């Protein structure tokens, strides 16, 4: 739910604010799939705190490409949360034709590139942290 809020004249401003409001509304109305009040409260807290943290982290971005990528990531995470009924990012596995890192061994540049290219859009903010 990573998006950028750029001050004043950004062409993305209304889109970013609209997306932020949608995420906060989802956080306020979210019901956990287990229907347990404790799970619902924890997931609501996760949605709102994650959104606030990532929006604040990206509020000073100015590159239109990076802002657009953040918007697409937030939209993807929102759709995945609604579809799969879980607010948490889906795990990412080792991509095909890539080797898992072995303890104490250097990873080749080709393997690193394969892994970097295979990171889905909805998890980019987690990888950057």
TrEMBL record:
<dbReference type="Pfam" id="PF05347">
    <property type="entry name" value="Complex1_LYR"/>
</dbReference>
<dbReference type="InterPro" id="IPR045294">
    <property type="entry name" value="Complex1_LYR_LYRM1"/>
</dbReference>
<dbReference type="GO" id="GO:0005739">
    <property type="term" value="C:mitochondrion"/>
</dbReference>
<dbReference type="InterPro" id="IPR008011">
    <property type="entry name" value="Complex1_LYR_dom"/>
</dbReference>
<dbReference type="InterPro" id="IPR040330">
    <property type="entry name" value="LYRM1"/>
</dbReference>
<comment type="similarity">
    <text>Belongs to the complex I LYR family.</text>
</comment>
<protein>
    <submittedName>
        <fullName>LYR motif containing protein 1</fullName>
    </submittedName>
</protein>
<feature type="domain" description="Complex 1 LYR protein">
    <location>
        <begin position="15"/>
        <end position="79"/>
    </location>
</feature>
């Amino acid at each position: 739910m990573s998006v950028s809020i750029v001050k004043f004249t950004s062409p993305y401003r209304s889109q970013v604010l609209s997306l932020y409001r949608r995420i906060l509304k989802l956080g306020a109305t979210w019901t956990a799939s287990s229907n347990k009040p404790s799970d619902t409260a924890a997931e609501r807290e996760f949605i709102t705190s994650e959104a606030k943290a990532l929006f604040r982290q990206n509020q000073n971005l100015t590159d239109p490409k990076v802002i657009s990528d953040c918007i697409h990531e937030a939209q993807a995470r929102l759709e995945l949360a609604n579809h799969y009924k879980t607010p948490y990012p889906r795990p990412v596995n080792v991509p095909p034709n890539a080797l898992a890192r072995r303890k104490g061994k250097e990873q080749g540049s080709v393997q690193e590139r394969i892994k970097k290219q295979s990171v889905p859009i909805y998890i980019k903010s987690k990888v950057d942290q």
